[in-house]
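Margin note from the TA: students keep mixing up input and output lines. Inputs are the sequences; the output is the structure of the whole complex. Example:
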Amino acid sequence: MAAQDTKLSFRNDYSEGAHPRLLQALAQIGNEQNAGYGLDRHSELAAGMIRTQIACAGADVHFLVGGTQTNLVAMAAFLRPHEAVIAADSGHIATHETGAIEATGHKVLTVPTPDGKLTPALVQGVLDAHSTEHMVRPRLVYVSNTTEVGTVYSKAELTALRALCQQHGLYLYLDGARIAAALAVAGNDLSLADVAALTDAFYLGGTKNGALLGEALVIVHDALKSDVRFIIKQRGAMLAKGAVIGAQFQALFRDGLFFDLATHADAQARRLREALVAAGIAFAFDSPSNQLFPILPTSVVEQLEDKYEFHRWQPHGQGYQVIRLVTSWATSETAVEAFCKDLAVLLAPASATQETH
Amino acid sequence: MAAQDTKLSFRNDYSEGAHPRLLQALAQIGNEQNAGYGLDRHSELAAGMIRTQIACAGADVHFLVGGTQTNLVAMAAFLRPHEAVIAADSGHIATHETGAIEATGHKVLTVPTPDGKLTPALVQGVLDAHSTEHMVRPRLVYVSNTTEVGTVYSKAELTALRALCQQHGLYLYLDGARIAAALAVAGNDLSLADVAALTDAFYLGGTKNGALLGEALVIVHDALKSDVRFIIKQRGAMLAKGAVIGAQFQALFRDGLFFDLATHADAQARRLREALVAAGIAFAFDSPSNQLFPILPTSVVEQLEDKYEFHRWQPHGQGYQVIRLVTSWATSETAVEAFCKDLAVLLAPASATQETH
Amino acid sequence: MAAQDTKLSFRNDYSEGAHPRLLQALAQIGNEQNAGYGLDRHSELAAGMIRTQIACAGADVHFLVGGTQTNLVAMAAFLRPHEAVIAADSGHIATHETGAIEATGHKVLTVPTPDGKLTPALVQGVLDAHSTEHMVRPRLVYVSNTTEVGTVYSKAELTALRALCQQHGLYLYLDGARIAAALAVAGNDLSLADVAALTDAFYLGGTKNGALLGEALVIVHDALKSDVRFIIKQRGAMLAKGAVIGAQFQALFRDGLFFDLATHADAQARRLREALVAAGIAFAFDSPSNQLFPILPTSVVEQLEDKYEFHRWQPHGQGYQVIRLVTSWATSETAVEAFCKDLAVLLAPASATQETH
Amino acid sequence: MAAQDTKLSFRNDYSEGAHPRLLQALAQIGNEQNAGYGLDRHSELAAGMIRTQIACAGADVHFLVGGTQTNLVAMAAFLRPHEAVIAADSGHIATHETGAIEATGHKVLTVPTPDGKLTPALVQGVLDAHSTEHMVRPRLVYVSNTTEVGTVYSKAELTALRALCQQHGLYLYLDGARIAAALAVAGNDLSLADVAALTDAFYLGGTKNGALLGEALVIVHDALKSDVRFIIKQRGAMLAKGAVIGAQFQALFRDGLFFDLATHADAQARRLREALVAAGIAFAFDSPSNQLFPILPTSVVEQLEDKYEFHRWQPHGQGYQVIRLVTSWATSETAVEAFCKDLAVLLAPASATQETH
């Protein structure tokens, strides 16, 4: 399955290398000598910048390589063997991590949702079904923001989940692989400080927001902090040259770059969305962030694939296909314009044809 | 435990960032769009270069982030639940991976060795002690080259282990975190092609030889190849931007850089060793590579620590200490000269004092 | 939660100790000396009787203690780490084993079903959703017969599942905790020989069919046979005095006792069912075996609970409750008659009341 | 490997079925209806009898099937993923459980000992070698009493271990598969109440002391008590008919049977030992309990094997063999006499031959 690198890609937000300011940060550590395993000054400074940004001086910050790794380290560290995670059935840990959580011994209890978001009622349903020692004990609620279908949580929604979790002794964990894209959405009312106040742990995604690699696991709840570095090492997740991630996060949290990159990605998606809406295209999910799920005629999809890369998400009835378009910090306006233009051309006759029937 | 970054460090070979040619390779992918998860052209080209170098066209090559991660992915992929690994009791998987192999469910059976190296007799002893289903079944022999105490395997030694393994249906796996340093040792008679011919799987270490991060897992034995990408993903070891490692290995295997960097590291160690020998210092291990284990008076060690960083390895009787000195691709001749000079000054009075007794 | 042992219990089919002929078999081994760990002559003879019964001379037979243990040993032995099980969402391994399968590292993929039974279409749906190395690989289909809601598979249904499994390289595994009850159902067209011919592995339940404890894991597919005793030992499932189970299975398969006990249990359930039907009661599941799921007015349920023990299965709308009634090899006709009589009395006014509306 | 059931066996203490009083107890529950999963009145009464015997009203008691199962349930319940067990390298969990502890994810750190017993100094050595997050964290000390080589701990020895454990935050766990045999040794100064006072958890072995099956896990330390029933269920260790074990432990702790059976076993071993000593035979271990390890000429061993069953433990130089002789609650005086007599005959010419050299 060779990569078709010559097409313009809307396949994901991790196709491009890294933002120039991050590459520059890496070049600067090239000749330094740094302490290993995340104990270097870059990691320490970056952790401090994150603590300031989330307004939580007591948080523990660990820099890890990728999202699946971060999720599995967290679950392995936070849960006893019989304790389980509750997630939407579209949750990344449930569907796209090759059973990484189960490989640490924990069950993922899933709930169908229309929009990828958990609600207190959905979580309560899982709790109601688990009452004895013949079943796993639900202990941690996993949410993603943005979700895997591009939707976002409002502050009220996250607050309501938090209240239910506290009532039942559940931890609330937020997968922030695309948290920058979530917070940059127009109309979003959540801040990173809110996230820190409302969850017990979460992570800030770097890989999908301009870094070569790197996620920052933030642990707020004191009970979850102990011995996490042991678990990181045990799971093969402790980077020898930790400064590689630390230096990138320093760059991301200097002068708001973390947010600027996501704002750019969301803006490009908005332009795509407006063009699609204008062309009368419907969407499988109402996603305001940098992932779009338009429903297109299969013939149009096939023609688009000659010039562009993107995921075919799922079939949608006879002759239609949901595709996923993702924009990133590196998506150029030129690329968006080209796509919109090509799409318009392709749709014009298609609709014309449809109209004649 | 803040890093003392201002001292000259002989603490390890992963203190420095990356060789300029690797940083340049990373900068070049900065603006490219690449396929994710190791399916990019850089990873494919680098894998091809490695296959050529090891003279094994059929080998599978997977790029992973670090050594512990590579070891645990390999054991999880290669072994059934009741199968165990045999290792020297100084082996990295036995001592310095926080039980990563056990966390995948497998026992590590250890054997004491004087020099960190397994022999057929030592392996046979473990086999003899494991005969029934009430015990784990030894299935894979783990060796490191260089070993954790800087020693190296000769071609004859590895060939003898290989013969025993074939006789008993054992896999032979070589941890090559420092394989470049092993092959660059003066008098070494092993080539990468030999390693590929004599083992079932091994890895080529990048982190300790000039890369920001990255190890190349090479699988030679067909029976071990299937579904390894599933295991990589499941263990959180699949890098979204796989080109980050692929591009670095392209640079390492272009024009022999991989070997040149190790030759430099070994040469600096040789100079250190010669200076120590000249000063009458004994060593805990007879290591010809880039790790040295001199036995020094504790008072000298303390004074050296004012200006240099290194590991205190273990106490050595009353008033003496084994330390570990490690050189790297980035160790400057100036640093080595400075250390030798300071050491000479410190030892002069020390020996004088000793001589008066 | 103290046991209310003085009420008549329809709670389950493992309330009573063991059939007299099994107790007698245990008494007989009381003074014998037997080889340990299942290598005794009783276990060997019992295994032979089972091989004869299932008409499969090459099958491996392992005697284990309980159902959850048998399931987890089988999954640990049969699957590689990234391979997953497909089960009905009511499957015992999915709901009532406290995550035992996940604790061995494997994901259980569940499918909603109306009647607890998997179909080729349901399995195909799971296969369609799992296509890449970012997801687990479905490898084994788990069915229960009887199912957890008392339904049974026909020979045609099992044959169809088998065909799909063979087409896609899936193993078919049958949880036979209540297989005797399934085969004893009036109209059943499956034999134990059919089960052996259509599945790759299955187990014959003793605990719920007259034994103090004990299940017989039967492995038909050669690829699944190797080293299973290692896995049994590793999971703490190897009984030191294996003859304890072997002797009971000898007794169960002598003169058809295994089938006679289930026939008795099913017959008692049929009498209960007929009484319930006659009283106009509906059922949550159409179960022909020894588990019944009538929908009763909550007030009736409460009154029944004064004299009888049974599970409240789930609420059923306002004022109604599904309960589970289970009969066993030891259920007396007297007990069934008493229950029917009490029920008739309780329902009489209730239906009267209903009729007035 | 068919069992040679016709020879007299000194192979182990679990060859015979069960003591008549236990078989009678099982027959009595044959027609009762009991609550499942260990919540029956027999288990509750037996737990109460044990609490009285150990003088620890607050202890939790769980009835499990076998020793490996009990050990793995305890380790899975008590330890976080990076926490390790310290054991003698002859410890059952280290050698004869097919990696059961590692299969729960935990490393077993082993120490060579001359007599199977841990000491504070040996434990301290392991602690000294484990200082950072790159290594597992030793958290629980595992001792067996009797040990696997038949030796026993004195009260002073256990008290000293306890003190070290408390000093370093280690749990002390005692594997009591043969604890009755340990306490019945002449001169023993430990009581079950002492064991409860000095350890955090331990188990009382039934299988090797007259039961068909069954071990009683006793948890003394409050921090270890929570949710253990979940772990028991998850590991397939929750017996549906828990009364099967409960009723046997009722019988064992009624009128001191538990101790009487072990006293008988130890007495038979003492007679064997005296005969061996009188014949000038040396022992590999100085074991005062029901396991003996005499060093015999291989020719004698071979002749004994015609009439008796026992383990060949290990070779002992040229022409000699250590064998293991085990007596049990069921070993008859006749059997011991027969063995002694045969041995005397065999040794007579053998010593004669030796003397001529």
